[in-house]
Amino acid sequence: MKIKNILVYIFLFLLTAVVLDLANPLFDKPSRDGGFFLYAGGQILDGKIPYQDFWDSKGPAIFYINALGLFLGNGSRWGVWLVEFIYIFLTLFFLYRIILSKWGDVAALFGTAMAGVSLKLALGYGNYTEEYALLFNAIALYLFLFTKDNEKNFWKYIWIGVLFGLSFNFRANNIGGLFAILIAIFTFYTFKQSLIESIKIIGSILVGFIISILLWVMYFALLGMASEMIYASIVFNFSYSAAQERTWLDIFGGFGRYGLGWYGWFTLFAWIVFLVYFISHFAQRKTTIIDIFLLCWFPIEIVLSNLSGRNFTHYYISWVLAIAIYSAFLFAESWQFIFKTSARDALNDSLTVTITGIAIITLFIFYSSIWVRYIQTVQSDKKEYVDSISAYIEQNTQPEDLVLTWYPEMRINFLVNRTSPVKYLYYPLFLEGSLTNEIENGYISDLVSKQPTLILDCSREVDAIPSLDETTRQEQFSTPGVKRKMYIPPRIEEIYIFVAENYHIETTIDKCIIFRINQ
To answer: Residue 253: helix, strand or coil by DSSP?
Structure first.
């Protein structure tokens, strides 16, 4: 193996470690969403069934990938971290290969580095649905963009559909690349007056896509939960999106405070440069199918990531692939403009080795604190972070005791290995218009019939829901603006009464009130 290739692998390995810094189980607790997926994975290993025993509006793949990680780690978060590492490393590898085949080594290093540092920002504490989907999207793009184009190679297009189907089963709006590919194929072959060919190719992609979905449907049909899975992961998300009020300006959320900041703006600038490039090629009748794809891709990603109208940074993880490829394009075009030669042909292997080595050294210097944390992780006898609340619950309950987290912090249930009594874990965080009678009635029924030993009320940490304690609730409602941003479900008073009659406050830790059931 050439030393250049060895250095590239080292660079990708270190970049992956940088991306996953905050996901380190020793130093940080899981994110709220990531903690729920860990809880779901643990429940699956305990024999529970998604959508039947616990419910979330996500595709099933995220639950089972967490179950796999926990199985590999013997219940430890490090198993999930390892799965994340493999997924991200392979994503960066395929991105590097895509860019390398088009614009050369240095553009590949630049584009991949942009992907890594932007993913570090968007990923945070990790274990998100969009994160795992990146790998399947990257492989699909590799097959489409830079493998040999052969209209008769329908297996290639079937596999593209299968890969995007796998991505869809993590989260429905992870498939911006698929829409861009379908538009590019239809437009390109229609202009070539080969409409039949475009239909065949698009049909092959859709067959692969449907196969991926049908396999999950068949699996859940065997469990008797197919309709519930389809409703939760697909149908419910339309009502969730419709329930959120927003303006057309919300489409630019990915460029703002809770988005990707300058990485997004840089990519938008690169896309605008590409638009000029596309117009020039179109005028010269040199437009390729890849040109059409790149014209459509980033705008589609922007729209899909903002469908919910809610700005969470991890929603923009799906931009990472686009950031890499458009950044590499801009780098290559800038190189061509400045040096009057292509970036792909400008450097020999020796210079490429030098530049790759400099990139590795830069990672060591710029992210020195991260390497200190990893060294401390290896040296530490304690391998996972446990916060004070989790420690208290673990010490003051039995493994078979049920624990309810009122602000739905399922990461705590996971960390202490305590099951929640309710199926609809995110009540009352549903938006008005998305909360159904079945969800609210089911929550109250579970709470009353499976009374938890402890209730952890952390509502004051974010003031997104009312506290179960009347005094604390009055403090919330007297704080200007707090009550206005809450959606108060119709039957929530019944829960207040139930808790007041059956529970008492045992202690308070870090703004969180712990209720214990009365003897």
So the answer is: helix
pTM: 0.94
Phi then psi for 464, rounded to 5 degrees? -95, -20
Tell the residue number behind the tokens 């450097």, with chain if given. Answer: 347
Asked if residue 399 has a cis previous peptide bond (ω within 30° of 0), the answer is no
DSSP per-residue letters across 362-411: HHHHHTHHHHHHHHHHHH-S--S---HHHHHHHHSS-TT--EEESS--HH
pLDDT digits (tens, 9 = 90+) for 144-203: 987 555 556 888 999 999 999 999 999 888 999 999 999 999 999 988 878 898 999 999
Helices 176-191 and 129-146: angle between axes, nearest 10 degrees: 20
Question: For the CA atoms of the chain, what is the radius of gyration?
Answer: 25
Q: Which has the closest alpha carbon to 419: 435, 397, 444, 437?
A: 397
Give the pair of three-digit tokens for residue 434: 């998305």
H or E element: which one contains 450? Answer: none
- 437 token code pair: 């009678």
Q: What is the pLDDT of residues 32-43, one digit of tens each?
A: 999 999 999 999
Tokens of 464: 């997104």
Which residues pair with residue 511 across a beta bridge? none
